[in-house]
Design a protein that fits this description.
Blueprint: E1 4-7, H1 17-32, H2 50-60, H3 65-72, H4 78-97, H5 102-108, H6 115-125, H7 137-142, H8 150-163, H9 175-189, H10 194-198, H11 220-232, E2 236-240, H12 245-254, E3 266-267, H13 269-278, H14 291-298, H15 304-309, E4 320-324, H16 327-336, E5 339-343, H17 352-358, E6 363-365
Parallel strand pairs: 1-2, 1-4, 2-3, 4-5, 5-6
Helix pairs in contact: 1-2, 1-4, 1-9, 4-8, 4-9
Length: 377
Amino acid sequence: MAKLILFDVDGVLLSEERYFDASALTVWELLTSDKYLGLDGEAFSPAPSEEDIRAIRKTVFHDDEVLSFIKGRGINANWDMVYLTFSHQMLRVLAEIVKEDRTFVEDFLKEDITYEKLGMLREKAEGLSFTPDYATFVPDFSASTAEKQAILLYLNDIAWNALQIETNVFSRSSVLWDVCQEAFQEWYLGDALVEKSIGKAPRQTGKKGFLEDEIPIVEPKKMAGVLQELKNKGFTLGIGTGRPTIETLVPLEALGLLSYFDKDRIVSASDVLDAERLYPTKAPLAKPQPYCYVQGWLTKDVPVEEAINHPLPLSKKGEVYVVGDSLADYMAAKTMDVTFVATLTGLSGQKARASFEERNADYILNDASEILSIFAD
């Protein structure tokens, strides 16, 4: 097989900024909208100004400290970021309610948290004097060394620490995670496209979406030239991304970059979710699990089961390359034992260099356009 390069998208080809904006807005909606917890319904609007968006993100992610912490623990999916941040604040709400009605909180945490149960909590919290404190996120999670998807399970430990109630409702396969995922998709895609993504009409209408505001990291014409030169050198190009399919294909096509990638090697978060639904006992499969990159290496013509169960490590250094900006990408590449190429264009920018150097990343680039330097004759 020809040599293969698998690119992440966010933080490598496209800026993550709008994804982080949508994540913050989702957490804000889940807490304030009367369609969810409704803690301050008057504050919510489906069409915030750019100034409001900046302020909401600054608050929800505590000047991006929360984002940096989550990504530093190997979590790269925005859906997981939303789930962690919202669930943490919801537990703080429950910590206030448990003082007066322990039975309600015990019952609430016995089984999956659905839309209906969020409505029950909204009614219970009506009149409660509660102000979200996002600065508590990092201290609470720092008590654990959990990484990757285990950090989602740590919410159950936080519940015990805060409430002295044992629960196992928090996980990547929970109904509440689906609620967070669907709410995020509404923000990112907007009214016009969200139904195609999640298979249902938006719960909250009036959202424009961010798909038309994508920001390329490298000037598209320059990046197109780099990708073409890689193909000229005999490389096959693929993608392994935490973005859903529509959010991957539409912007890359608009920027003139999609045609350079083998369509059977473009593996998105939609493919990951489909794989998890087919084989729930194998979940989670999102990065830093290597599934999306293994499937991209094998191609989507290969059955999902074979990709999930393919023996690792591949031991394909110098043959298979993963280009990513995050610790999650690094972990996936390490599990596969393939060459990892770090780009310093993610959330931490140049500050990430020290972390990648400490982990002995094979290559560290200022941006993806420098990849040709690796293969210079």
